[in-house]
Amino acid sequence: MAATDDRLAPLSPESASFFAGKQIVVTGGGGSIGTELVEQLLAFPVAHIRVIDNNETAIATLSEHLRGSDRCEVLYCDVRDEYEVNRTFSGMDYCFHAAALKHVPSCEQSPFSAVQTNIIGTQQVIRAALRNHLSHVLITSSDKAVNPTSVMGTSKLMAERLFTAANSLSEGTHRCIFSSTRFGNVAGSQGSVIPLFCNQLRLGREITLTHASMTRFIMTLADAGRLVIESMAWSLGGEIFITKMPVVAIKDLARVMIQLIAPCYGRKPSEVKMSEIGPRPGEKMWEELNTDEEVRRTYDLGKYLVVLPALRGPYGNRDYSYRDHPLRPCEKIYHSANETLMSDAEIEALLLRPGVLPADVRDRLGFSCGIK
After folding, report:
1. How is 87-148 classified by DSSP, letter by letter?
2. What's the farthest any 2 CA atoms get from each other in the chain?
3. Is 252 helix (H, G, I), strand (E, B) or coil?
4. Domains of the chain (ranges plus CATH)?
5. Which one-letter DSSP state was computed for residue 47?
6. What is the pLDDT of residues 316-326, one digit of tens each?
7. DSSP at 322
8. E strands along 214-296, which residues?
9. Listed residue (6, 8, 2, 3) closest to 229, CA to CA
10. Confidence band (pLDDT; 50, 70, 90) for 370?
11. Percent of the chain with pLDDT over 90
12. Strands 298-300 and 247-249
């Protein structure tokens, strides 16, 4: 089990003390983000972490990985099951809600399941948090929720809105703070493009691009986990926290990966072909971090942006002051087609960060690998 992570600067004393002695439940804890969250949280003096997921294989893998930790338990639970969610939230202080159907194609093919998990499941989490008097709940969302063109993005937009609205349900003695985080593509996460390209190189296939002009915001698992953890410690209710991310052109990512990884499998980079297969249903050519409507209530906190609630009625008396960070208006819409693209050297540096490339690829490149 990882202790402190040298990939990240330490949390501020205020943020670190926020988690001391707390009971925390992580939904979707068997996924890439959930697992990263658990590992980072165990570096703090938390009292206990309850991890829930509905993927038996992920549960078994994570249970083995966490074996020997007396501060963590892994349970089977589907967030669509109201009774089970309520039961697993009993005795908890905080919740990180990372359970979701996150892949655009599968949500397009199974929209009813996407609604059940990403919207109805989010409702179950909100209700369970209120019933069990949790004090802080945070959901992980996506840049695909901004001006959505897909079922997945639309369902995550609804989940964000539900979390913002939930704050008005908990005013009083047992007030619970609900907030959201929004980030881009997580490099190396399950089912993402980096493992796909690695597998195509391993199998001797050509690299498939949906479109040569496609751009994406990108971040590492470690950075995504830190955003989520810091956002909860900062949250005051109803906000959406967004980290500022670099932008990569997918064709540039593919080209750098070919140069770096193809020789590991005995292939000459010049002989690896790339082909365009066309965007998938619901897939955007570019991504956005905030909308033109949101920019009027978006503020710059340095590393992060924060979008305050649009419906200010329930939040009119709330003081949105974030420690020593003054609220500076953000007058910019972050759009991946308009940002400076990562250079080849920056892309290679990203790929070589821990947890980005699959373990077998890192082994071939001569790196020691962790569990990530």
Report:
1. HHTTT-SEEEE------HHHHHH-HHHHIIIIIIHHHHHHHHHHHTT-SEEEEEEEGGGSS-
2. 66
3. helix
4. 13-364 (3.40.50.720)
5. S
6. 677 888 877 77
7. B
8. 215-220, 240-243, 247-249, 274-276
9. 8
10. very low
11. 77
12. unpaired
CB burial class (10 A; 0-12, 13-18, 19+) of residue 320?
middle
Report how many helices (DSSP H) and strands (DSSP E) the chain contains, helices first: 13, 15
Q: Are 30 and 61 in contact (CB under 8 A)?
A: yes
4: enclosing H helix or E strand: none
Active-site choice (22, 102, 144, 156) = 144
Which two tokens mark 241?
């926290």
Beta-carbon contacts of 326 under 8 Å, excluding residues fewer than 6 positions away, are: none
Catalytic site residue 303? no
Residue 61 one-letter amino acid: T
Distance (Å, whole) CA 184 – CA 288: 9
Query: What is the identity of the amino acid at 274?
Result: M
Give the β-pairing of 177-183 and 185-187: unpaired
- What does each C-alpha distance from 357 to 5, 193, 260, 288 come to in angstroms? 17, 11, 11, 25
Residue appearing with tokens 């996407």: 114
Neighbours of 201 (CB within 10 A): 24
Question: Is residue 354 a contact partner of residue 7, using CB atoms and an 8 Å limit?
Answer: yes
Alpha-carbon gap, residue 282 to 291, rounded angstroms: 18
Burial of 268 (0-12, 13-18, 19+ CB in 10 A): exposed
Taking only the tens place, the pLDDT of each residue in 336-369 is 999 999 999 999 999 999 989 998 899 898 854 4
Instruction: Quote the tokens at residue 232.
Output: 């909860």
Round to whole Å and give the CA distance between 142 and 282: 14
pLDDT number for residue 9 = 58
Indicate the DSSP class of residue 311.
-
Digit-coded pLDDT (tens) for 222-241: 999 999 999 999 999 999 99
336 in Cβ contact with 329 (< 8 Å) = no
CB atoms within 10 A of CB 177: 20
Q: Report whether 157 contacts 119 (CB < 8 A).
A: no
Q: At what angle are helices 250-261 and 193-202 packed, to 10 degrees?
A: 40
Query: What whole-number distance in Å separates Cα of residue 184 and Cα of residue 74?
Result: 27
Written as six digits, the tokens of 7 are 């990939």
